[in-house]
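Researcher: Here's the sequence for the chain we discussed earlier.
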Amino acid sequence: MQKIFAWFFILLIILYLSVTSCKSGRNRFDIDQRELPQVSLIFRDFSSALFEADTARFAEYLRQLQPDFLPFLNANLEDTANINRLKNFVADTLARRLYHRTKEVFSRTNTWKSQLETSFRRFRYHFPEIQLPEVYTFISNVQPEQAVMVGSGELLVALDCFLGADEAVYSKLGIPRYMAAKMTPAHLVPAIWSAMYEAHIEDRTLRTRVLDEMIASGRKYLFMEAMMPDLPDHILFGVEPEKMRWLEAHEGEIWLSLVSEGLLYSSEPVVFRKLLSDGPFTAEFSYDSPARIGEWVGWQIMRSYAQQQSQKPLQALLTEGDAQTILSLSRYKPKR
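Model: Thanks. This is the structure I predict for it:
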């Protein structure tokens, strides 16, 4: 009986160590909130200020708004041409429809502000020297390439780019399904952190090989994961859940293909497009696969590297070492 108990106790210890080992590797940046500094973000809603305006005294109203909304009103408001452009935008049928849709969607799903504040506490913990921005929301008439813009002390967020994958306006505008899948309220905060990374942290060194671009992308997703450790991978990566399941099930096969075909060190534009460009799938692998497979593998390499270099802070992981060194030190070798 004592021998059975002893073996049972040892088994419990092994299970505990394996679980904690997994957690320490995968979630090493999930800092206890009690250790995080407090932050207080300023949110300014330019869309409401603009679309609820009294157009009978529009010029005077805009001049009153100007000090609080300089990112949008940094122009001569004595010039009637500037006033008329804004008045025409407010009267635009599509713009007004999008404004009312954002009010409807985000009145039901307005958790993004608290989610953003929590993740900014993590940002301040890791990057205390970077100034926190003021957050402005606006209507862009659905310009996904301008969904999030980071300026000098401000963060501009186009809420009409996050209304939901099934938003009728997106379909009418001809936005592909794989793009619309990332235009949901759940993807808003990840899009903000992607833009923040590119604005403040990303190394702009020329990347000539596929491996260089993979590791550069992997750094970004490691950063985003550190800012939002509770989000599922498919939201962070911006693909549908079944696409993420395909990636996880075929990770070993993907890596074997990249290595055996010598794609990691390719500088051919066609290989870059095949592995790193966005789209509905990667035809060379499977129609069930997502695009940007190279980015995802780069993320897994960076995860493995962060686990191996467990004493290095996030800043160092995002800036130190070239791609080849990171690959070697990561010991990345997925099972087939």
